[in-house]
Amino acid sequence: MLALLCLLVPGGCKKDAAPPYILPVSVTRNHLRITVDPRVELVSIIQYLSSYRKLMTTADFAYRAEVDRHFAKHRGHEAVAMYEEMVETGFRFSSPANFALSLTDGLYLDESVLLGDHVLWGGGGREQLVNFCRALRDFSLKSKFSDFYAAHEDYYRENIYRVAELLGDWDYVGELQDYFGLKYRSFSIIPVSLYGGGGGFGPHVERADSVDAYCVLIPFDSETQGNIPMYGTKSVFKLLLRHEFSHSFVNRVTDMYKEEAMKHQALLNPIQAEMDALEYGSWLTCLNEHLVRAVTTRLAWADSQAEGRKALAREVEAGFAYTEILVEALKEYEKNRAQYPDFISFYPRLLEALGQ
């Protein structure tokens, strides 16, 4: 009877086809993997085809035009429509890329990944994300995304080498793991050509026994030269990598102390307008931004006192009023690493400093 039903019902017992495996274009420098991740690139194309324009590039360059030509007829696909609906529930900014990094190569949810709340609930819950995965697989097959990716490997490689030039010899992985006292499995930089506005975000993928940290790079539209996006000067790039990779440490630890951290949410009230303008309008997001900026200020201070003073002034001027308090508290952490071997053990003292 089951066999008969499979024959009579169109697609009744047929599992949707998995898209072909795509070998990512990657290079490794200074213990950092720089890669155009096919999963993130696919999701960025879905975002680009949608009517939600925040985060998307405004620059005119060849790759964008080729995306238009290849994928224009798929603007009405279910995956694009689903993304537009998910935007309304909070599936914005870093969430789509973080979601993409939580997928298998075959575009299924990786069951070993511990999905963050902003991905899980921003995306409308696990069932909605599973349905979105199905739509992504269908879009990938019908649009021949694998063919498009393969045809642009030289472009992706040139983009990656542009990023590698900005790295220099700096050991970001060693610096950050030493400062936070935590070891991660991997660190990756992912440039996304279709994003725009400059900067980046720092998602992480956590499993029961490991963490993978990422810096998703957003090109500066106004600086794009020729066909390759631009990511700022070496000094801007250094600040950016420190900031975004620090999020993978800070955000995790804040989640560990979420209940204690929420006791200080009244501190958001005096700076609510400034944080709303910067899209950091919830207390935990605001707190994480302050903590990351305090850490990067201390790292800049380690470069030189002049750089440290400049960094602190920049953060306070930008509206992060509690940065100086946290910077002073971090000095205690740095002087007492035997007592506080990692950021997790010191975090309560940071909350205490805010409380005072």
What does this structure look like?
It contains 17 helices and six strands. By secondary structure, the chain is of the alpha/beta class. The chain folds into two domains: 16-223, no CATH class; 257-355, no CATH class. Strands 1, 2, 3, 4, 5 and 6 form a six-stranded mixed β-sheet that branches.
Summary, kept brief:
The protein has 356 residues and is an alpha/beta fold. The protein has helices at 2-8, 38-49, 62-71, 78-87, 94-100, 117-120, 126-142, 145-151, 153-167, 172-180, 234-256, 258-262, 272-277, 283-303, 305-317, 323-335, 343-355, and strands spanning 25-29, 32-36, 186-191, 199-201, 204-207, 210-218. Strand 5 and strand 6 (210-218) form a beta hairpin.
Shape: globular
Gyration radius (Cα, Å) is 21 Å
Tell me the major beta sheet. 6 strands, mixed
- Tally of separate domains: 2
**Beta-strand percent range:** 5-15%
Question: What order do the helices and strands follow?
Answer: HEEHHHHHHHHHEEEEHHHHHHH
- List how many beta strands DSSP finds: 6
Summed up, the helix count is 17
Structural class: alpha/beta
| Low-pLDDT sequence parts | 4-14
Task: Report the span from N to C terminus.
Answer: 71 Å
Question: Quick check: average pLDDT?
Answer: 93
Question: Could you estimate the helical fraction of the residues in percent?
Answer: 40-55%
